[in-house]
Inverse folding.
C-alpha cells in the first residue's frame, strides 16, 4: 500500500461521479507523510500505520473552494478522518471504520 498512488472509486459503498473535466481524488502514503488531491484541494499530512490499522490524524488541505466538487471532497475528507483500518485486495484498497467500508481506492 505504501509508495503507490490510490485513486478514489467509492465512498460509503457508492461509486463516485466526478463532474466533467474534474480530476478524480487520489491519495499516496510514503515515508511518514501523505499527499493527495481531494477533488479541489491538495491534501497533505501524516498518517499512522500498524498492521491492518491506519489513521490520518494529521490530515490537512489547501483552502480553495470548488462548487462542483466540494461535496465529494468533504465526503472524502470525512471518510479519511474516520478511517481506522484497511484491507488490501490486489490493486484495491478498502478504507475501513470498524467493520464498515468507508471508501475504496484503486492503485494507479
Amino acid at each position: 500500500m505504501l509508495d503507490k498512488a490510490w485513486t478514489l472509486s467509492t465512498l460509503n459503498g457508492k461509486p463516485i461521479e466526478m463532474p466533467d473535466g474534474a480530476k478524480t481524488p487520489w491519495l499516496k502514503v510514503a515515508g511518514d507523510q501523505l499527499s493527495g488531491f481531494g477533488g479541489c484541494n491538495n491534501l497533505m499530512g501524516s498518517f499512522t500505520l500498524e498492521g491492518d490499522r491506519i489513521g490520518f490524524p494529521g490530515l490537512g488541505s489547501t483552502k480553495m473552494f470548488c462548487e462542483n466538487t466540494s461535496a465529494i471532497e468533504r465526503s472524502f475528507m470525512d471518510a479519511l478522518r474516520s478511517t481506522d483500518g484497511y484491507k488490501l485486495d490486489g490493486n484495491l484498497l478498502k478504507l475501513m471504520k470498524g467493520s464498515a467500508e468507508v471508501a475504496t481506492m484503486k492503485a494507479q
About this structure: The mean pLDDT is 95. Helices lie at 70-82. The first strand starts at residue 5 and ends at 11. The longest helix spans residues 70-82.
